[in-house]
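Dear H.,

Thanks for agreeing to be a second pair of eyes. The structure we're designing against is below in token form, covering all 128 positions.
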């Protein structure tokens, strides 16, 4: 029963006739709206362009930082290689065979007794 109470879905629609003054006013408002649309589109295009330029600038700065970082990594690797070379040289000189050769070259001789140094307040004594 409720279906019969609904209004008809299809009705004929007729165009409303407007006087000439109303038509001119409507065309003027359409022209103003087109100008506003153009200004809006220009504003949006300039905003998008500005955003792209900012993103490009940030990208350039990040790329420069990446090159700086790469250079610093290269310098660090060079320093680490030099450090390893120096440590290898020190280890070679600190080997027992090289230390004994250096001691013999200085005129040191092995001893059978060990001598200790004891320090007192008034005098230095060598105990054997």
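And this is the sequence the design step returned. I haven't edited it by hand at all.
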């Amino acid at each position: 029963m409720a279906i019969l109470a609904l209004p008809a879905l299809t009705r004929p629609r007729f165009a409303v006739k407007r006087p000439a003054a109303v038509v001119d006013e409507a065309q003027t408002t359409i022209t103003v709206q087109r100008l506003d649309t153009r200004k809006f589109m220009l504003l949006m295009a300039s905003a998008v362009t500005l955003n792209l330029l900012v993103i490009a600038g940030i990208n350039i700065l990040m790329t420069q930082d990446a090159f700086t970082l790469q250079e610093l990594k290269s310098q660090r690797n060079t320093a680490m290689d030099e450090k390893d070379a120096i440590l290898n040289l020190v280890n070679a000189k600190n080997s027992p065979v090289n230390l004994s050769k250096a001691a013999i070259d200085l005129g040191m001789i092995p001893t059978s007794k060990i001598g200790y140094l004891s320090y007192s307040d008034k005098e230095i004594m060598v105990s054997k």
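Two observations from my side: Residues 20-93 form the longest helix (74 residues). The mean pLDDT is 79.

Warmly,
E.
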